């Protein structure tokens, strides 16, 4: 092998090792956009129709499906419909409202084994009111969650994570009385898979893990009995129950974690020094050849 080839190989090995060591710099913080919404396509939700036995037919009730609200039941007081998030205490109407659909900001990178940093993510609230048998009730709906991670200096989108959850629901019916009846069986919210999730992405030679998780721990593994009532299968499910005339808020948090900055092993330093020594030997041989 010629001296020139040896010199090039040695130099290449040193530069490659140096690049490997330098690539481990962790990005200290990230910009992010967190989005939660209801799908509004006709095949992404379903309702059980209310029945009017005294009138020989079905009552349409009042359904609302938007990107932030799925609600059902009566039209509210005095025959007028009010958005459930503005008047959650109206008896005779229930709904699941995404109260924080879009959140953007900056988050500090957590390092494995050190203090963890997290920020508040999206939030939805279930308002439970007594719904008459004459009104439609929710059976299922589709919720979308989207996480976007952006480099704060370059504006580069380095990770986009879309998630879709089919939400199942069981509304316990009641009848209209004045005042409302006492607490009855709670309504049940369920999903087949937990809504917490983690995804990894690589940037600059470092692996990062984004974590989207439910903070108050209201989403729990439900009993087989409850899952069977809502999901209509024997599959395990996760969710919560809300007592009549109350509400349940589900809040999520978000974090990004990186492995500690890679420090070259002693063997790596030895290889770098050996490469530098080889370059020196080649240089001396070249000088000696020239002097002769």
Number of helices: 3
Low-confidence stretches: 8-23, 77-83, 176-183, 262-270
Tally the structural domains: 2
**Helical/strand content category:** alpha+beta
User: Mean of the pLDDT scores?
Assistant: 78
Distance between the termini: 21 Å
Largest sheet: 8 strands, antiparallel
Instruction: Characterize the overall form.
Output: elongated
> Helix proportion of residues, in percent?
10-25%
Q: What is the chain-wise order of helices and strands?
A: HEEEEEEEEEEEEEEEEHEEH
Describe the oligomeric state of these chains in a short phrase.
single chain
Tell me the total number of β-strands.
Answer: 18
% residues in beta strands: 35-45%
* Rg, Å, rounded: 30 Å
Task: Describe this structure as you would to a colleague.
The chain is α+β, with helices and mostly antiparallel strands. The protein folds into two domains: 53 residues; 235 residues, no CATH class. The strands form three sheets. Strands 1, 2, 8, 11, 12, 13, 16 and 17 form an eight-stranded antiparallel sheet that branches. Strands 5, 6, 7, 9, 10, 14, 15 and 18 form an eight-stranded mixed sheet that branches. Helix 1 runs antiparallel to helix 3. The two termini are 21 Å apart. Strand 14 and strand 15 form a beta hairpin. It is built from three helices and 18 strands.
């Amino acid at each position: 092998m010629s001296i020139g080839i040896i010199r090039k190989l040695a130099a290449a090995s040193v530069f490659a090792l140096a690049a490997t060591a330098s690539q481990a710099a962790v990005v200290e913080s990230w910009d992010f956009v967190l989005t939660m919404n209801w799908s509004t396509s006709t095949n992404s939700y379903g309702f059980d129709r209310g029945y009017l036995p005294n009138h020989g037919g079905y009552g349409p009730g009042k359904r609302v499906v938007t990107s932030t609200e799925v609600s059902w039941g009566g039209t509210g007081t005095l025959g007028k419909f009010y958005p459930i998030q503005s008047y959650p205490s109206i008896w005779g109407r229930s709904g699941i409202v995404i109260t924080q659909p879009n959140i953007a900001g900056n988050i500090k990178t957590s390092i494995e084994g050190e203090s963890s940093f997290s920020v508040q993510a999206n939030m939805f609230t279930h308002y439970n009111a007594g719904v008459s048998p004459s009104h439609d009730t929710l059976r299922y709906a589709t919720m979308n969650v989207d996480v976007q991670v952006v480099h704060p200096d370059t504006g580069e989108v380095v990770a986009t994570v879309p998630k879709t959850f089919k939400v199942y629901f069981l509304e316990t019916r009641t009848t209209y009385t004045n005042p409302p009846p006492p607490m009855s069986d709670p309504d049940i919210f369920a999903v087949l898979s937990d809504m917490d999730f983690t995804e990894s992405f690589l940037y600059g030679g470092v692996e990062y893990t984004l974590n989207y998780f439910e903070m108050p721990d209201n989403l729990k593994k439900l009993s087989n009995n409850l899952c069977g009532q809502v999901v209509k299968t024997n599959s395990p499910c996760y969710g919560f129950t809300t007592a009549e005339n109350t509400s349940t808020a589900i809040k999520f948090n978000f974090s990004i974690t990186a492995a500690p900055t890679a420090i070259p092993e002693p063997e790596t330093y030895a290889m770098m020094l050996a490469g530098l020594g080889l370059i020196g030997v080649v240089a001396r041989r070249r000088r000696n050849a020239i002097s002769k």
